[in-house]
Amino acid sequence: MKYIKYSQYIGDPFEGLTSEDLLQLLQDFLLDSGFYGQFYDFYEMDPERTMEQLHQALLEALHDKGMIPEDLLKEYLEDSEEYQKSRLHEMINQLLDRLAEEGYITIEQPQAPQGQVREQQPGTGMDGREGKVRFEVTDKALDFLGFKTLKDLLASLGKSSFGRHDTREMATGVESHGSTRRYEFGDTMNLDVNATLLSAIQRAGLKIPLDLDYDDLQVRQCEYQSSCATVLMLDCSHSMILYGEDRFTPAKKVALALTHLIRTQYPGDTLHMVLFHDSAEEIPLGQLARVQVGPYYTNTREGLRLAQRILSRQKKDMRQIIMITDGKPSALTLDDGKIYKNAFGLDPLVVSETLHEVARCRRNGILINTFMLASDYGLINFVQKVTEICRGKAYFTTPYTLGQYLLMDYMQKKVKHIH
pTM for the complete prediction? Predict the structure, then answer.
């Protein structure tokens, strides 16, 4: 005789979570700028990111959102050693497995010394992934985070239609926004039928068949749409996380959103990323999520120099620098390679050399738009001089409105003297 054994069904409380939901929960951790690390006595330019940290971040995010059932939460709160063997621990690991399987993170197993077998560390999962096992955020994850940030920013602006960079030049094209003119060889055949027929009638009179000549052809003009090369300069000096406010993480999110906007809506544009602090360096867009604040000084001139070298290689109609900073220039790279530093006030030497570099940008046809995350008097005066020299724009904003100002400026492009 057959017997059927029944047991209580225990469902998975995280079954409805998608990988995209998990990325949103982990967004603050993945884009951390070192704000909470400022209270420690050390600084890491390339901090290690382990699966153990990722596991803990996801667990805390789920706990903060109230998404962990009481019976599972009890295991976590009672005993940390017991938690390593608990069902909740295994569920979190399964969620991380899903992120890896769908290509949002890559897991790097630690390498054992040659000739030795790597031993599983105490407190690791059955698959040995915890402890010193590192992970990397993939381009797919960065793309999704950029899309979500862009969507959130545009939602806060209300309805906004995507276009291209409008200028005051006119050209023939598909969208007709301008006046009609006579067709010239090489123009797009965007015919204005009414104007063409009217021209033929005025020349030869109304008769059937209508005598249509080459000179009668009239085409509609549309707004000339140019391509743009952009260098986004991010101030990553230590002041970006001081004074009780994290200013760098919002800047990183805006950079991700701008990257997604350019790739999807302005495919002819280019975007490069420059970090400036004691010195300056270009970073690949794929490394943006890992960047944290570092040295204490602000070498604005060196950032402008590097940005100009990058833009000189770009064959675009428009070239611009978008600079996000919260501090006055306080460092200068001298001719011998040494870095002159002065954090007390606006040093005349640093300011004058920085303004000379701004003037060089103008001579090279490069526009500078500055987004300031501070508002002290000396800094405002400096930014006004930068804006006056390069004929760009200055925005005094906050970390909460930075993205709205920057994206609207990029999309609308109201600087009329650019062709």
Answer: 0.69
